[in-house]
Amino acid sequence: MTPIRHNGSDNDAVLDAVRDAVLAVGVRRTTLTDVARRAGVSRMTLYRRWPDVRSLVGDLMTREWIAVATGAMPERRPGVTTRALIVDGLVAGVRAFREHPLFRKIVDVDPELLLPYVLDRRGASQEALLELLAGVLREGHDDGSVRAVPAERQARSVLLIVQSYALSLRTMTDEDDPELGEEAFLAELRHILERTLTP
């Protein structure tokens, strides 16, 4: 087994391994031994960076959720306001997040893993998302397309809205009724975001 160097590609190899393990058996049944075997490194190599599986999974979630958020943000186009880009990106992000295999596995098998980030404290991925949101909201303030209020508070408020849709939407949908299906609720989310961000 080879030692892991502390650079991005090595960390990605370990995070890829923990993702594969979690998708196969869930978080509770994933072990550092299994992750080390999948990554081709020693268990002690992992312990030097991550004290337990939960810390590994926390880093994995941060990587995956930030990739979802940045991947959902549309390209800038002439004549399209920053507000329109934000709303499109957030709605697409909720859809992509809910379809993400890791999120679906955690919700189905280990939902308690998400509770601290809903009830008690912000996690690293939420902090990173807030930073991204605050930056793009400031751009919207500058071009006049977004209601100008303190950007940090506005980012936290928007994340509260989006997070509730991402985490709890399935408790409200009724796929037998088109008026209560996922797409109808995502359209409602779009309307809410437009209303709250419009000057």
List the helices and strands and how they pair.
Elements: H1 8-25, H2 32-39, H3 43-49, H4 53-72, H5 82-99, H6 101-109, H7 115-119, H8 124-143, H9 151-168, H10 182-197
Order of helices and strands: HHHHHHHHHH
Count every beta strand, where a strand is a DSSP E run of 2 or more residues: 0
Rg from Cα? 19 Å
- Number of helices, counting only DSSP H or I runs of 4 residues or more: 10
Kindly estimate the percentage of residues that lie in beta strands according to DSSP. Answer: under 5%
Structural class: mainly alpha
Which stretches of 5+ consecutive residues score pLDDT under 50?
1-7
- Main pleated-sheet profile: none
Q: Helical proportion?
A: 55-70%
Averaging pLDDT over every residue, what do you get? 92
User: What distance lies between the first and last C-alpha atoms, to the nearest angstrom?
Assistant: 58 Å
Shape: globular
Keywords: DNA-binding
Protein name: TetR/AcrR family transcriptional regulator
Pfam family, one: TetR_N
Put the structure in a nutshell.
Helices cover 70% and strands 0% of the residues.
Describe the overall structure:
With 199 residues, this protein is mainly α. It has ten helices and no strands. Helix 1 packs across helix 4 (53-72), helix 2 packs across helix 3 and helix 5 (82-99) runs antiparallel to helix 10 (182-197). The radius of gyration is 19 Å and the shape is globular.
